[in-house]
Amino acid sequence: MKTTEIAQSSNSKWLMFGRDNEKPNKIIDTNQYMLVAGQRALLMDPGGIELFAPMLGAVLRHASVEHITDIFASHQDPDIISSLGLWDQALPNAKLHSPWLWEGFIRHFGMNNIEYVAVPDEGGTIDLGSHSVEMVPAHYLHSSGNFHIYDPSCKLLMSGDVGAALEDVDAPLYVDNFEQHIPKMKGFHQRWMPSNAAKLDWINRVRKLDIEIMAPQHGRIFTGENVGKFLDWFEALDVGTAIK
């Protein structure tokens, strides 16, 4: 599993874990993220159970077990949080920040030690002491209870399934040519994003944020002008096409 530092501020750094050539062939490739700030770390959408061993080995190179105090799960999908039962053993004193709507479902992955912090629909903040991030509502994109993480210091939005593209594990990490990247995203967004109203609400919300990096759960990371290009493209895209 590859580890890449994708952003930093005076007291923090963002790491992306993914592009795992040793993952099972029929498991989609996912991007996992960790924010390290001082003596604390926030692990975000830590992955499926099949990836736990390489993920644990990767994150421990950058933060000790004692320093990983918080976990974030944007929604209930197994590809981002089915490893919870194993993290529950590795990080018994951590807190899991996740939508209130999905607590009864997410606990099926195993939670005996980690504390569940239910996030209300309007979102909130995760305070890491020297650093804090915002949980931005992204409901129905694609989950009915869903959040993204915005770090104003690094001007980074961890955007979950929004911006996702299903690609090979050897694909580049960053979007270089936006127009050539569109075919890799279009079908996914039209089928998995069910609501144009929810899409527009999210776009209006994130346009108010200062974003230089948009880091989705699958595929490549958007930087610079490609962030705005994605928002313009997504705004014009008709989604929820399976019911037509």
UniProtKB/TrEMBL annotation:
Domain Metallo-beta-lactamase: 29-218
Entry superkingdom: Bacteria
InterPro entries: Metallo-B-lactamas, ODP_dom, RibonucZ/Hydroxyglut_hydro
SUPFAM superfamilies in the cross-refs: Metallo-hydrolase/oxidoreductase
SMART domains cross-referenced by the UniProt entry: Lactamase_B (SM00849)
Listed PANTHER family: HYDROLASE, METALLO-BETA-LACTAMASE SUPERFAMILY (PTHR43041), METALLO-BETA-LACTAMASE DOMAIN-CONTAINING PROTEIN (PTHR43041:SF1)
Record's protein name: Flavoprotein
Organism the protein comes from: Catenovulum maritimum
